[in-house]
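Provenance

Sequences were taken from public entries as deposited. Structures were produced by running a predictor on each sequence independently, with no templates supplied. The record for PAS fold-containing protein from Allokutzneria albata is shown for reference.
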Amino acid sequence: MPSDRSAVDGLLELLVATEVIAAFRDRDGRYVWASPAYQRMVGGEVTGTRVADWADAATAERVRTEDERVWAGHVVRWSPENPGHFTAAGGDRVWLAGRKSLVSGPLLGMIAVDTSAWLADRRELTAAQTRLSRFLAHAPAISAITDAEHRYVWVGGLGPVDALGRSVAEVLQPEVAAQVVEQNAAVLASGQSRQVRLSTPTEEWSGHRFPLPQPDGSTHVGALLLDVTEQERARRSAATWRNRFLALLDRSPVPTCVAAMNGRITVANPAMAAALGRRPRELVDADLEVLFTTTDTATRQRLLHELLTRRLARRSLHVTWAEHSGTLTVQGVPDEEGSVLLVTLTVDPVAAPEPPQLSLREKEVLTRIAAGESTAMIARALGLTVEGVTYHVTRMVKRFGVPNRTALVARAFTLGVLPG
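Predicted structure for PAS fold-containing protein:
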């Protein structure tokens, strides 16, 4: 069996090897031994001294009061929740968890650990929790936590009042509760966060539901939802006006299209497509510079510069395409993403074709056809053979681009070859 002395020596060796703050004092309050950690705390060697020899008056008085209790047979205990404290050599307060009691000798022994860092971390954690709780309590959002049975275990912000301990079905309207239960069940089944929308008869909410693993192995569901009612109304209103604009654009007889600032068409109406000999969907993403050409170089350069600098005024440019010509009017229009181009096209009227030139004999034949005479009657009247009359009629049908004699007469009246 080891001697008492060897046991004490072993204990002292253990205390020296660790960062434990420990010391022994006699009945007069003089230190008989102090661990290295204790000496670092107070700033030097203390053996043979009393606390009052180097500590401030308040510390010395507090230590004396504690010592009297210990010498009276009591144990002084310090815990992390209710720590003791000591003013260190640098003036900082050190917070201790441990005990002070009598040991054999008789000596007064003190053993403790420094909990200052732990307390600082706990204070920071408490402050962070307080800030988070205040944020959630005052945030203009619905924040709540429900368990696997869809019962509220925490509610903050704009969450339902008096909901704690009650189920979603007991707190919310049936159609809203059904949405919440379905969304929570999806989170619990997948274990993944989900972006969700929640609709009530008067409001729209958008946000996330996410899993919250619990220490007992169960999973709760956290929810953080923002009120997007006004945004949704604005979105629906914008969609309504966009649909109205597209309907008007579709029915407008004026060839019109909307293009991005780089000149690529995003939507074109049927009138524009017809003018270009295309279908409307064939013009989507088509480049205006490829579709149209111009000889008005000066106006084109001004237009390109204004497009690059996004200071586009209303510009008109004479253009050609295929066998047609017209005036392209480009107007910059502000929108949510910057600007777009509203483009209209005025097609130049096509000149009426010149009527074919007829000889005197052809005019005589055409006049008699219009009068309703037969081929034989025309031949006798003009001194021609039937084949001769047929020859003249065939030539005129081809030159007027019509299929038969009846259409020939109609075209002749239209072009003014025959008097009306």
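The chain has a mean pLDDT of 88.
DSSP finds 14 helices and 16 strands in the chain.
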